[in-house]
């Protein structure tokens, strides 16, 4: 994984912590393998807020919601922080 | 008088509204019969009820619906491991029940699709009972994405497989659980909001039932102290025994607060309850709601409507199935606060409880919804829709 990809993962994790902004998440371990549904109990409305915040941070057209809507139910259930970061990396490379 | 066959899945939250509707129809002199699983539901049915038992010798494991799953995963497991296997196992005994009882009309819970398929196959008029408004929304709306054809497609694939081999291909429809006549919804449109797209059907919003037909449950009324705020804490009948963590967090949060809390939780927790907490495994929920100032719950559809009809604000800690969607309805209406079920700490819970009791806007918004819920006719409205369908059918000469 490149340094830039690591930075993107860090931004995604920081954005999740800031958006949820509850006391438990401050020191809750989050890494690429952390799952939104089972590990973080993040609801879809919050996911949309996280996606918007990441979008604002990078300013590029990331189309996270569009990417999500193409996923099947198994992929949505298992969605991890790392997969979101990978999508952001790919979208940024494409936009570059 | 009409012959009416009622079928619901073996879930208390689905039985209770049907009990109220059935009691109303019985009062009017109609002849009722139940096609249900006697094992899990038998002792909750009215005394002397005519029952066609759907329990089968090969046994259906009602506990198979992965009690620990949450969120979208629980929705998937509910369909794939519970609703669809239950429907397949119920088709033959339900069809036999309908042929034996010869109903004029069937009343079918929307999560008992075997009943819908039997009614469609036998050409019987029928209505759907919808016990949660999450079920009438398109899945894309639930996920808040711009569209999720994949999720709606997944639901339709489940129903396609179920209908294949039982119905004529020309009788198959994408969502067979919704009656082409009337779909009775135990909610009001004001709570549903206008953000979400509904699956097209003839919805009849009748609001929550008033609880007729439920069994009597004892409650120590003298425990309530009317000089202090009182809260009801419940995770509903499915998640009550899921784990004790949430209840322990709430007990720690309210310990030392100037209020009382009634916890609907396993007896085993009574030993660690502070003096201002009463632990009861079962309660007469509608009566208790008349004596509390707020509700902490899992955002189960029945509990939410039963609280709001009384103008009570809520803390919603959704876990599974439809609950995240119903929690959103409460929050969008300004009548509740969100608490993350598996992550809540005593500090978070205490903060939420303080706001629940002290923020007048929450109560005002709950009370704003109350008149529409109170004005809805509940079981009487549902019974009127069902009897009107029978009358319409008699006029058309298809019955009797």
The spatial strand order of the largest sheet of chain B comes to: 3-2-1-4-5-6-7
Strand content of chain A: under 5%
Quaternary organization: heterodimer
Radius of gyration of chain A: 13 Å
Describe the structure.
The complex is a heterodimer of chains A (96) and B (400). Chain A is an all-alpha fold and 96 residues long. Helix content of chain A is 62%, strand content 0%. Chain A has 5 helices and no strands. Chain A has helices at 3-20, 44-58, 64-69, 73-78, 81-95. Chain A starts with a helix and ends with a helix. The model of chain A has no long low-confidence stretch (mean pLDDT 90). By secondary structure, chain B is of the alpha/beta class. Chain B has helices at 12-27, 38-41, 71-101, 113-122, 139-143, 149-163, 189-192, 236-239, 245-254, 285-289, 301-308, 323-332, 346-358, 360-375, 378-395; strands spanning 3-7, 31-36, 51-53, 105-109, 126-130, 182-185, 203-205, 230-234, 260-264, 277-280, 294-297, 314-316, 336-338. In chain B, strands 3-2-1-4-5-6-7 form a 7-stranded parallel sheet, with helices on both faces. A 6-stranded parallel sheet of chain B has the order 10-9-8-11-12-13, with helices on both faces. Chain B is globular. The termini of chain B are close together. Chain A binds chain B through residues 22-25, 28, 37-38, 41, 43-45, 47-48, 65-66, 68-74, 76-77, and chain B through 70-73, 76, 140, 142-151, 154, 318, 324, 327-328, 340-345, 347-348.
